[in-house]
Amino acid sequence: MTIDERSRHRMYERLQEILGDEEAATLMEHLPPVGWADVATKRDIDALEVATRRDLDALKAATRRDLDALKAATKRDLDVLKNELLATFRAELNEQTRTMIHAMIFSTSAAVLTVGSLAVAAVRL
């Protein structure tokens, strides 16, 4: 037998006739708003606690695995970036060194030629 609001109201009216308004209201307040089959028992709550704990433990393990994988991927990406930056820095440093050496050779050659030309000019005078 399913209990609906109409049957609950009839029961309340009958309780009012027998017990009075206050006692009928008190008794009705202690009844569940639905059938007893819909009321959770301690056993239901305990089973829900076990299932929830199991789900949380699985979520914790999955989150840990995901974070570890993310950490490893981030480390790999940073290592690649570091190596690319070092290679670029070395290439730029090598280019700068070559440019400086060429400039030094050119200026030294120019200075030697100038001094040589001055010496030749001085000898001719």
Low-confidence runs of at least 5 consecutive residues: none
Shape descriptor reads rod-shaped
Beta strands, count: 0
Q: What series of H and E elements makes up the topology?
A: HHH
Could you characterize the architecture of this molecule?
The protein has 3 helices and no strands. It is mainly alpha-helical. The radius of gyration is 46 Å and the shape is rod-shaped. The chain starts with a helix and ends with a helix.
Provide a short characterization of the protein structure.
This protein has helices at residues 5-19, 21-29, 42-124. With 125 residues, it is an all-alpha fold.
Task: Reconstruct the topology from this structure.
Elements: H1 5-19, H2 21-29, H3 42-124
List the main descriptive attributes of the protein structure presented here.
mainly alpha; single chain; 125 residues
